Amino acid sequence: MIHCSKCRKTFLTLAGYRYHSNKTNSCVDPCDFDHTHDYINLSFESMEASQVCFESNEMDRSFVTRRSSSNQRLFICAQTTKDNIKDKRLKTNASRKTHDCPAKLFFKEASFCRCVSPVAGEKCELNRPSVQIRGCLQHSHPLERRNLRLSKAVKEDVVKLLEAGLTPNVIINKYHPAEKEDPASKPVTTGDVYSLVRRANLQGKNEGARKRDKF
For the chain, what is the domain count? Predict the structure, then answer.
């Protein structure tokens, strides 16, 4: 194995390493857009652990899955211009403003160098598989609250409250009031709650709750 001293990726051949090192900014700058960058470079033991990090930090409020496989994932801005998205499942609603945004997150599982002081192009003496998250969190546009997505963490919390028998109005006004939520998060609306009722198959359980909300 040959290692890269900058990004610590390893390569089976010297030719593979040279191809990698000759690519402009291939392992230094994950974003070539001309703006103030907010780089992320993290390492995890597994893809599951990296996904937990993504969701616990509520990155899914402004990022959606573009590609996903067993060993790599790509997340792009949830408001990326429709013309740049070929997958119809990722197209935003017609009423939602879209942008040509470069914000991306790359999850890649590979063998990375663990040498104390790696020398570029030298043989790697210590490496092991891990998942690396690299990318730029900086969007090219303001993140308007109404255009953000509910994070998985918020959705799960709302479902738990619904399962406990709380009404949508109580959930919104007491547990998720817009004025007390993170300014960088989407406010929970009545429509969001009823959508989660349907997805979680809680229609019957919350029939009484809907009637109480009318009074």
Answer: 2
Average pLDDT over residues 97-101: 76
Q: Tokens representing 56?
A: 């616990």
114 with 165, same domain: the answer is no
Helix axes 152-163, 47-56, angle to 10 degrees: 80
End-to-end CA distance of the chain: 69
Give the confidence band of 92 by pLDDT, cuts at 50, 70, 90: very low
The CA-based angle 168-55-200, given to 5 degrees, is 35
Question: Which residues, listed in sequence order, are joined to residue 83 by a DSSP beta bridge?
Answer: none
Which residue range(s) make up the domain with 156? 150-213
Do 25 and 130 fall within a single domain? yes
Per the DSSP assignment, residues forming a β-bridge with 39 are: 136
Alpha helices, H only, the chain: 14-22, 47-56, 152-163, 168-170, 190-199, 207-213
